[in-house]
Amino acid sequence: MEGLLRPIGPEEERTYWIRRGLLLLVVVLLLIGLGFLISSLGQADGTRVEAEPVSTPAVAPAPAEPTSEAAETVVRDEAVPVPSSARTDGSDTVAATGGAPAAEEEPMPPEPANTFHQEPPQAAPVPQGQAAPQAEAAAVQPCDPAALRVAVETQAIKVGGSAQVRVSVTNTGQQACRLTVDKNNFALTVAAGDQQLWSGNDCVAAAPARAATLAPGVSMNWTAEWRGEKQSPQCQGNPEQVGPGDYVVKAELKGVPAVTAKQTVQA
């Protein structure tokens, strides 16, 4: 008993107590590990799920085939059809085996005549909000001169050169309109002061007849050429070249205020 409380040995008393403590710790750890092992095995047994047996649907036995004797009986009990040649005087002939009389065949009704009737082709419907092409073309009215704006542009040239005069007529209205331009309602001229030197409607067609439907804000544009010449009387003989200076190009559409542009001819 004294050896348990006071260790006896050649080593120090502290060394023996450390050894006893380590041994006790190992025993405690073994007991704890054994407890965890037993607990894990118990949980594994508790969560085991046995597979339920799968029921196999019962298969109904196949019906037995009738014997040859039964087959013969069925055949003997059936009525024997009587051919149409055996009927006389409109009466039904009964088979010798005692079967029921055959039903008289009713004549098939005649097939109806072909009454197919083809409908005449109809015009494709016009989408809502859009007018038919003919109605739309008829609805476009000639342009109101008050809704038109004329513009003219040119550039400087040398003596003996040709000027390209650009003319445009714009629809400033709110509706589309039909515009026709020809020598009866349009004139393009070049003048020096009050003297007219050249007109596009005299010798050459500066503005050939043209027509177009102008939507709001759309312009009709074309280009006329002035060769820097002065027209001779009745457009006869060789035209005379103009000298250096500033000239006035005027575009005038009937009912619309005329517009002008400066045309410079350089030496």
From TrEMBL:
<dbReference type="InterPro" id="IPR038144">
    <property type="entry name" value="IPI"/>
</dbReference>
<keyword id="KW-1133">Transmembrane helix</keyword>
<keyword id="KW-0472">Membrane</keyword>
<feature type="region of interest" description="Disordered">
    <location>
        <begin position="52"/>
        <end position="138"/>
    </location>
</feature>
<protein>
    <recommendedName>
        <fullName>Intracellular proteinase inhibitor BsuPI domain-containing protein</fullName>
    </recommendedName>
</protein>
<feature type="compositionally biased region" description="Low complexity">
    <location>
        <begin position="52"/>
        <end position="73"/>
    </location>
</feature>
<keyword id="KW-0812">Transmembrane</keyword>
<feature type="compositionally biased region" description="Low complexity">
    <location>
        <begin position="118"/>
        <end position="138"/>
    </location>
</feature>
<feature type="transmembrane region" description="Helical">
    <location>
        <begin position="21"/>
        <end position="42"/>
    </location>
</feature>
